[in-house]
Amino acid sequence: MSELVLTVDEAAERLRVSRWTLYNLIRSNQLRTVKIGRRRLVPVDALAEYLAQLTRVAA
């Protein structure tokens, strides 16, 4: 089964940005997350949405 969600650290690693930068993306509502208990998780498809948005802006 493929991963559905990533931890903040895993998502930052996949985007090749710092954890601080990832939290700024979350705070500015540029990156969608879910909260399960006390954990903040990033859906894998949210990374794809964010990158698609960046591509549209750059075009």
Automatic annotation (TrEMBL):
It comes from the Bacteria. GO terms for molecular function: DNA binding. Residues 5-53 form the Helix-turn-helix domain. InterPro entries: DNA-bd_dom_put_sf, HTH_17, SinI_DNA-bd. Pfam families: HTH_17. This is Helix-turn-helix domain-containing protein. It comes from Actinomadura rubrobrunea.
